[in-house]
Amino acid sequence: MGRRVAITGFGQTHHSARRWDVNGLELIQEAVTRALADAQLNLKDIDAVVIGNMDHFEGINYVDTWSVEGSGAFLKPIFKVTTGGTTGSTVGIAAYYHVASGLFDHVLAIGWEKNSESDTTGAIITCSDPIWDRFSYSGAIPSLAVEASAYMKRYGITQQDAARVTVRDRGNAVNNPYAHLRTAVTVEEVMHSPMLTEPIKLLDICPRSDGAAAVVFSSEDKAGKTCPRPAWVHSVSVRHDTTWFGDIDYLGIPSLASAAKEAFHLAGIREPWKELDVCELYMPYSFAGLKWIESIGFCAPGEAPRLLWDGETDMGGSLPINPSGGVLSTNCIGATALLRVGEVAQQIMGKSEKRQVPDVRLGMATGFGGCFWSDVVILGVDKP
């Protein structure tokens, strides 16, 4: 059994559609500096670095080499991880395992993206098989539209139900000074926003953001020395289980269901809806805020709208989801899932300021990407 590991620091950039003031290296450095300050550590304390982004989208490879001045990895072991949209959470999980292995005491996990300099749709189209996949997977939005349509037809879900997810997350983002989109919206505004691909409208979908995030993972021997309330890693789970876009189950997300089941089991969680205090879930569009919480097991299939309309997932509800504003407010792809991990860690540390959920002891973060892959991380205030 490996060593117990905790998150002791988290830093993120201020996110926007275009960060003209910095290049990629400087963007990374901004997040790293803030994470080290939060952990009360210096670069000399960091033993290794794990970094990742969607280099396929930008056409710029080897971030582990050219960003060393920003990551602080000079003369340190550095590992590059890229797993599609789940890159951020996979980077964090890789950093966790590096510490748990006993090889390192402090490992810095970094995720970043400059979407203003990339072509997401072009990259997704060209990475799909031209014969078997491309006709049905012509970019992120059309594929999500297929999923949403199948879900609506099967369970009688409405576009207004999905709009309620956007209202929640965008409302939460108002209290997050780092978020890209910080303007609250109404159901009516979502419904009247431009249609992109039926049934997905402009306000149903996440933005494209420039930004970075950095998280410090520390061994149990070091965690408490500089961090008075570490966020302990209780469990992690990774499910990258589909190769072809055409194999995706549009009525559910089996990878998330499987990853959540394993993570809950490893963390000793029997009733997640009752035991978890906060969730930061990678939901790139509004319909995911309904269907995917059903896959996690928070409710039965088709019952998610009731939880949303009853306010059960709002701030002050039974289980607040995405107090940060989530992916619908900020989406710097390589960092997006790492932001989920870092935001839950901050909730446990009690450092979330205006977006703080009271008395958080156990939280869940997820990552999403690729052929509907999923990662899950469970963090808690108690040492596992």
Characterization of the model:
- The model has no long low-confidence stretch (mean pLDDT 94).
- The chain has a single domain, classed as Peroxisomal Thiolase, Chain A, domain 1 (3-Layer(aba) Sandwich), CATH 3.40.47.
- It is built from 15 helices and eleven strands.
- The protein has helices at residues 24-39, 55-58, 63-66, 68-71, 87-100, 120-127, 140-155, 159-173, 187-191, 220-226, 254-267, 272-275, 288-296, 304-309, 333-349, and strands spanning 5-12, 48-52, 78-80, 106-114, 195-197, 200-201, 210-219, 231-239, 278-280, 362-369, 373-380.
- It is an alpha/beta fold and 384 residues long.
- A hairpin with a 2-residue loop joins strand 5 (195-197) and strand 6 (200-201).
Q: Supply the CATH superfamily name.
A: Thiolase/Chalcone synthase
Largest sheet report: 9 strands, mixed
Low-confidence stretches: none
Strand order of the largest sheet: 3-2-4-7-1-8-11-10-9
Mean pLDDT: 94
CATH topology: Peroxisomal Thiolase, Chain A, domain 1
The domain tally reads 1
User: How helical, in percent, are the residues?
Assistant: 25-40%
> DSSP strand (E) fraction?
15-25%
Give a short overview.
The chain is 37% helix and 18% strand. With 384 residues, it is of the alpha/beta class. The protein has one domain (5-119, 206-380): Thiolase/Chalcone synthase (Peroxisomal Thiolase, Chain A, domain 1, 3-Layer(aba) Sandwich), CATH 3.40.47.10.
